[in-house]
């Protein structure tokens, strides 16, 4: 049940933010500059998530980790309802509130699952929890446009917000019961948290910046690549993007299973980076030939989803293994603030490169970012395991 709650929290947080691109055709006529608003929305949301993820652990002693997530979802729900007003200021307020809501979800769920998940299954448990992110995006993309066609945009927002509120009420008390069994050190306890964010954690976080950079680039631009370079229709380009997200849902627990199997001998985190880099480069010859086989792009989208969107759970598990459980909430939040920086910067940088140079340069840039991320991931895992084995920052190992 704790895993189900944390997956639901992740899915709802993702659902809020990704509801905007999913419903864009239905509200853009009401906005003066819809492209600007839609483009800035995720950047503002993830900037706020960077801040709230770092501060989340301070609320654990008072509300509990899952209780903190519940309050975060409540804040996100208020922001989601703001979308019904269809004004630029309402969207700005919605982005701020949704970002504040999104940041604490990972640190709080990490604290709970770290203490409850067996060590031998930690990678797959964290990966299953992270699968809630693409799941929320898939639910938004599949349900909101359909509902908007049957009702209208405002009615869809209100109806879906009511459903979310019912879900939140349904598991609020159960979250409290689980929190009573979770150790939550005080905000000032647990030693020097700045020192606990050691070199290994810093390298892992830097790798996550590279990985999230690429993941959000493909989330934002893969459909456009299919439309511009493969002459796909808008609907077919949307299917390509859906393949990418669905593969991410599959890839996260799949990589977690592999990581748990190889945990004693190796780590898969650098390998995911290398594969992502190679798959990014594989797009270059496809966009340079006339009439490429559409099946190649579908296959590449599936492979990219498995890798570029499948790394998150393994990363959070490696980070949790690198620090004491008493500091996990704050360290996870600090690491994820760097992850969110890649989310913000990636699409902007790729779009600028695409506009200034060309698609080949932009895609080869992703190859370079992926390889750098793989190197940082390998170094981060090696350094973290040496620090833990030396007993400098002993990570506890729950049964």
TrEMBL record:
Q: Which UniProt keywords apply?
A: Membrane, Transmembrane, Transmembrane helix
Q: Is Transcription tagged as a keyword? A: no
InterPro entries found in the cross-reference section: MFS (IPR011701), MFS-Transporter (IPR052952), MFS_dom (IPR020846), MFS_trans_sf (IPR036259)
Per the record, the domain of life is Bacteria
- Annotated SUPFAM superfamilies: MFS general substrate transporter
Task: List the Gene Ontology MF annotations in alphabetical order.
Answer: transmembrane transporter activity
Residue ranges of the TM segments: 38-60, 72-102, 153-172, 203-229, 235-255, 267-289, 295-314, 335-354, 360-383
Q: What stretch or stretches form a coiled coil here? A: none
List, for all copies, the residue spans of the domain called Major facilitator superfamily (MFS) profile. 1-385
Entry keyword annotation includes Transmembrane: yes
Name-wise, this protein is Sugar phosphate permease
Q: Which organism is it from?
A: Spiribacter vilamensis
